[in-house]
Amino acid sequence: PDISGISPNTGMIIGGTKIIIRGKNLGERKEDIIGLFVCGSNILSSLEYVSSSKILCTTKPWRVGEGVITIETQTGGKSNSTLTF
Q: What is the CATH topology of the domain spanning 2-84?
């Protein structure tokens, strides 16, 4: 997977921020994605699959900080974004 865009790139620590993640090879289907983390917080349960180049998710309450988005797929392996949230 290759993450090329995150919108928005900030959110509240109370959670509830809907994030659009864009890139390439983000999974062949929803079930292909086996790991999705924002700043270390597991948000796989909120995953909304649109296409292999666009997915959506919603943050949950988490500690203050800045970090990467990590996605892992069965077919493409694991990748960390160079962009931060």
A: Immunoglobulin-like (2.60.40)
